[in-house]
Amino acid sequence: MAVLNAERIKITSTRSPWWCTAIIIVLGLGLAAVIGLTTKAGINSVNNQIAAGEEPNFEPFLPQMSDAVLGVSGFGVLVLMILATLAVTSEYRFGVIRTTFQAIPNRASVLIAKAGLIGVFGAVLTFVLTFGAYAIAKATAGAEAGAALSLSDNASWRSIYGVPIYAFLCVVLAVGVGALLRQSAGAIALLLLWPLLIENLFNLFGSFGEKIMPFLPFLNANHFLGATQGTNFHWGPWGSLLYFAVVVVVIFGASLVVVNKRDA
Question: Which residues contact 56 (CB under 8 A, 6 or more apart)?
């Protein structure tokens, strides 16, 4: 409890967590509003063309639940990973980590406390925001454009409760990467480029890339959340979650081993 209390004071007494939280809220709810308004405008355009006796020149986009919460599960979780990374790398940057490890010889407990506190906070925050994003997207899209936005099936509910699970695991991953690299720029660059660029590059490798993509961790996480991205996975959504969790545990476990072996 002393370790948890110490980490809580560190996290809440700095400005970056508050700024990151505000950014997550704005991105999560703002993107939901943009998706709803854009969809409604597209439906209205198609209806106007039909009313004028014209053939619609495009197929209207009807967002699913995974689209409505994309601001939370996508950009919001990325910011949450940045927050978790800074919670570790900032201590290395300013030399505070030495004092921390002198006060708490059990170094693993420090990383576990950081991951647990930020992970639970991120899970609760994203859980609330997913409901808010759903409500905003449905309200701004209207009845016709938001017809597919409902909580009537398991896949839709998984897009709601799956985001907090994903957010918690991403925080644990970010703490592990931050502890391994110890530099803010390198750790943040890796965590941002990994899901946004690196895994998407395998599309360029033809049949070889198609064989590798089902085993990429963030693609598996997206599969669990309802976005398959055209990849043929060897297991279902829950299998993808388990695979992503195993990758996270391996990386976090490696960070615990390395932190205990090397100098602070």
Answer: 46, 49, 50
How long is the chain? Answer: 264
187 neighbors 85 (Cβ within 8 angstroms):
yes
Separation of alpha carbons 168 and 171, rounded Å: 5
Rg value, the chain, Cα: 21
Q: Is the pLDDT of residue 146 over 80?
A: no
**Interatomic CA distance for residues 176 and 179, integer angstroms:** 5
- Containing 252, the helix (H) or strand (E) segment is helix 237-261
In 3D, which of 182, 189, 186, 193 has the Cα closest to residue 218?
193
What would the pLDDT profile of 210-243 be if each residue is shown by its tens digit?
888 889 999 999 989 887 677 888 889 999 999 9
**127 sits in which H/E element:** helix 107-145
At residue 245's C-alpha, the angle toward residues 240 and 250, to 5°, is 130
pLDDT in tens, 77-136: 999 999 999 989 988 888 888 888 888 888 888 899 999 999 999 999 999 999 999 999
Name, in order, each residue with C-beta under 8 angstroms of 246's C-beta and a sequence gap of 6 or more.
none
The reported pTM is: 0.90
What is the tens place of the pLDDT at every residue in 35-83? 888 888 888 887 787 777 777 776 777 788 888 888 999 899 999 999 9
Whose CA is closest to 247, among 178, 177, 200?
A: 177
CA 161 to CA 153: how far, in whole Å? 13
